Amino acid sequence: MTFIRQVSYLVVRIFRYFMPAEHPRTFGPDGIPSLYPGGDSERISINFWTDIFENLPSSSPNEAEEPSVTRIEWKKNKGAIGHEWLLATIERKDGSKSYLRLERRPSSAQLLTEEFTKIVDTRPGVQKALKKALREERAFLSNPIWVSSQKSMSVRGPVQAQDTIVQTRNATGQLIKSLEDAEVVTSYSNFKKPLYLKDLIFAACTTSQASDEYLLFLQQCYWFSRTIVGIITTHYYPDISPGPYFSDSGKLRLSQGKWSFQINEENRREVTKLAVELTKRLKAYNDMVTNCS
Predict the structure, then answer these.
(1) Of 10-19, 39-48, 54-63, 82-91, where does mean pLDDT reach its minimum?
(2) Distance from C-alpha of 168 to C-alpha of 36, rounded to nearest angstrom
(3) How far is Cα 204 from Cα 222, in angstroms, rounded to an integer?
(4) Higher pLDDT, 190 or 148
(5) Which superkingdom (predicted)?
(6) C-alpha dist (Å) from residue 232 to 128, 225, 264
(7) pLDDT at 121 exceeding the cut of 70
(8) What is the pTM of this model?
(9) In Å, how far are 117, 236, 242, 251 from 188, measured between CA atoms?
């Protein structure tokens, strides 16, 4: 397997050398999706992003480690179903910064059917609020930036998870063509162990591959965000600062918080297992780059 990975690495390096510069998916030398003029970058599947990063033309592990993650914000939208996502601040040695937004959404609005209202709560007021929130979420997912990213991925069914990364022009993580009002759940900074870009990439990919289905009451956007930061805190020991929405993490909030339902809670056993998997993936990557340099 190691031999195959090394051969694949060298082949992709040669391919990238001859690949036309106008290829629609463009990445910087550090593997970060490039910003479009006046806008955000293309939305990229986290698994595809990992494949690109693994085959960057780096001569040693140290070159790939130069960009560092200096801050992660776990955010929650105020409207609709209270979608949760992560914003990572990436800083290079020259002081330049990039802002990466990582999130999980359903790959099809068909998931958000009103059948789920029967599961959450049968009170008429709650039913009405939930139906309204689901209509808003369906309308949001009809935005071309989401539809195009769905088409660019391999979708096996209506509940296939859409785990993506996008470089945002806004330091708040807000998308240029689809603004959402959000608040911070928790922020993480001052990592006691250096958190490099590649570590974040593999943490996100490890989480994504642990479950590639969007399960509303098990593995959804709440689970995705919480699991990634759980892995990060396990390995890199950051300072943790609760935000305005700290008590609302993992909750489905309706009618501006009039009703809320705890959909997701921390699963330490799962986080510990995935943290071990991350360690293995990082070692395999560093060994591969060292052997190919």
Answers:
(1) 10-19
(2) 10
(3) 14
(4) 190
(5) Eukaryota
(6) 38, 11, 18
(7) no
(8) 0.77
(9) 34, 10, 9, 20
d(CA 163, CA 106): 9
Burial 90-125 (b: 16+ CB within 10 A, else e): bbeeeeeebbbbbbbbbbbbebbeeeebeebbeeee
What is the SS3 string spanning 85-124? Answer: EEEEEEECCCCCEEEEEEEEEECCHHHCCHHHHHHHCCCH
**Total H helices, total E strands in the chain:** 9, 9
Express as a percent the part of the chain with pLDDT over 90: 37
Q: Any idea which residue has 């593999």 for tokens?
A: 202
Q: Could you tell me the maximum CA-CA distance found in the chain, to the nearest angstrom?
A: 64
Per-residue pLDDT of 88-105, as tens digits, reads 999 998 899 999 999 988
3-state secondary structure of 272: helix
Task: Provide the domain count of the chain.
Answer: 1
Tell me the C-alpha distance between 225 and 17, whole Å: 35
How close are the terminal C-alpha atoms of the chain, in Å? 18
In this structure, which amino acid lies at residue 250? G
* Amino acid (one-letter) located at 251: K
Q: By mean pLDDT, which of 28-37, 51-60, 162-171 is the weakest?
A: 51-60
Domain region containing 188? 2-292
The band of 201, judged by pLDDT with boundaries at 50, 70 and 90, is: very high
* Sequence-ordered list of residues with C-beta below 8 angstroms from that of 135, at least 6 positions apart, any chain: none
User: Which of 105, 111, 222, 82 lies closest to 163 in space, CA to CA?
Assistant: 105
